[in-house]
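Our preliminary data section would be incomplete without showing what the modeling component actually yields. Below, a chain of 189 amino acids is followed by its predicted structure, encoded as tokens that our downstream tools consume directly.
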Amino acid sequence: MTRNYSQFRLRYAADVLYSGGVVSHPTEAVWGLAALPSNPVAVRKILQMKKRDPAKGLVLVADSVQRVAELLAHLPEDRREIVVASWPGPVTWVIPDQDLLPVWVRGSFESVAIRVSDHPLTSALCHAVDSWLISTSANPVALPPARNQRQVQRYFGTQLDYILPGATGERSQPSEIRDALNGEILRPG
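Predicted structure:
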């Protein structure tokens, strides 16, 4: 995928995130909702928009393995190598959290789901805010994930603070989710 996004729009999306807003953006297969994980008000807004149970936790997305290195440090070396070899790419790994992330990200779990994205705009957005991001599918619970900007607008209308224009990647399914400790597939991709 070519780098055909607007730097102005990317900077604006970053500013919205810094100010506690929620941004919708394209990912590898579907549109997502993003917020800074350090902002509980923005995360709560995403949960309310989606009508998602906070106990379920949320997925984080990053732009590089270095960004998530602290989380990976506690994995056994052989498991860490497997996780790192899959990134950047469409595999989300559930990794034990050593109290690095707040409960509003983890939900009722002692782990966190994270992916290093290979989508150029998603990666650029993480880079622009110098952080990993909450990135959950843009859909209310029980409805299919949004596949285009129009569907995002239909689902959320004025609840969103910004929609970052762009195109989804080539994938037809959301990312696979796997357990980092044993490799078990928790959701096929």
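The mean pLDDT is 93. The first helix runs from residue 7 to 18. Preliminary results of this kind motivate Aim 1 of the renewal.
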